[in-house]
Write a structure and sequence with these properties.
The chain has about 300 residues and is an alpha/beta fold. It is built from nine helices and twelve strands. Strands 3-2-1-4-7 form a five-stranded mixed sheet. A five-stranded mixed sheet has the order 10-9-8-11-12, sandwiched between helices. A hairpin with a 2-residue loop joins β9 and β10. α5 crosses α6 and α6 crosses α7. The chain is globular, with a radius of gyration of 19 Å.
Length: about 300
Amino acid sequence: MHRIGIAIGGTKSAVTFAEIDENEIKIIEKINIKTNPESASETYEKLVEAIDSRNFTFDSISVICGGPLDPIGGTINKPANLPGFDNFPIVKLLNDRYSKPVSLLNDADACALAEYKYGVGKGLKNFVYITFGTGLGCGLILNGRLYSGTNAGAGEIGHVRIKSQGHFARNGKKGSSESFASGGGISDLSLSYFETRKSAKEIFDLARKGDEKAKKIVSIVATSLGQVVSTCVDLFNPECIAIGGIYPRVIDVLQDKMMKTVRKESLPMNLSSCKILPCSLQEKIDEYSSLMEDK
């Protein structure tokens, strides 16, 4: 089967052309475009221009995007980083244009499906994928099926409050886990320790060099991420939790303290049956996730 995967992000989007089956995905080509977060129509035109620029015969199109969205109705409903995508009927537009089946998924759900089908979650029944990137969320595979909730809002672990107070309310709730355990949260936190804002990458690099301020931030992040992981261990009782985004690149400075918190805060019986691993697809996750359908 040949499929086109579309990933829509706040600053960039991508169109991936692929051959896909149950055991393997062959990426044929990927085209990146710049998203206009204020204009869904402009971004859409760039996406279809990319599709039409290739003589590619395909069977279906899959679209992934951050929530809120409505997979059944096929609309993107004004995510925080895409204010111009208010009730945007992406599925209908693509279906009308190409007369092919079109699906829509939350990007965290799509990442969970990709790792479940082609990565460390393969063969498991209960699996959690944590998106530890610019924001924080998770995708849930429960009893062998994607669980997305009543209106595709399940897995918003970044909105769970883990502290009574927080430095910034990244998602409208001070003390939320996303304020401490995400790339954006780390950058916000840097303002409490440095005179100028620093990126998550800069903080981790400084911590590796022994900078005490950066090491303090990393300690806070590791503890916070450990609280998130332990919450997932006890709430969902999965066989495996895979952490993606930043995590595979910073295991050397995060893992030990994170796992110390996980062991301290998780129920021993639940933790004993759960592996905590970095996502195995790593750099492939963006392309693979854009090609996922909930079937």
